[in-house]
């Protein structure tokens, strides 16, 4: 009986802390929440505590593409960017949802009441040393996602 009570207390505590973790939302998360009922594109960049040169380049190039090419869509909340530490326990659910492990780059498209995502991790690592190729490939994927939400 004591074990059951302990498990029940543990579950209640975890639910409480998970509910409280949403108080400090970033600007991008607020825009995503505002656009939750609408079609949108979420760019998710997962990382771990210890990051290599390629991991940092993936983040940098992704942010540059979004700022240089999709600033209007970012301002409207049509495209959002989230940098997610996969090592933090608070992110366990989203890490599990996308099977993220280490650095993982995902484009999640929400359109017509459904969700689909593309895992660009292999592409990102193969091109982290080639800025032009990385940016061109990322733009291609984002354009395909924009086409889905605009049709």
Description of the molecule:
- With 151 residues, the chain is an alpha+beta fold.
- The chain has a domain at 48-151.
- 55% of the residues lie in helices and 19% in strands.
- The protein is built from 7 helices and 4 strands, in the order ααβααβαββαα.
- The chain has helices spanning 2-20, 27-34, 53-69, 71-76, 92-97, 121-127, 131-150; strands spanning 40-47, 79-85, 104-111, 114-119.
- It has a 4-stranded mixed sheet.
- A hairpin with a 2-residue loop joins β3 and β4.
- α3 packs across α7 (131-150).
What is the number of strand segments? 4
Alpha-carbon Rg, integer: 17 Å
Structural class: alpha+beta
Count of DSSP-assigned helices:
7
Main pleated-sheet profile: 4 strands, mixed
Strand order of the largest sheet: 2-1-3-4
Instruction: Estimate the mean pLDDT confidence.
Output: 82
Note poorly predicted spans: 1-35
Order of helices and strands: HHEHHEHEEHH
N→C terminal distance:
56 Å
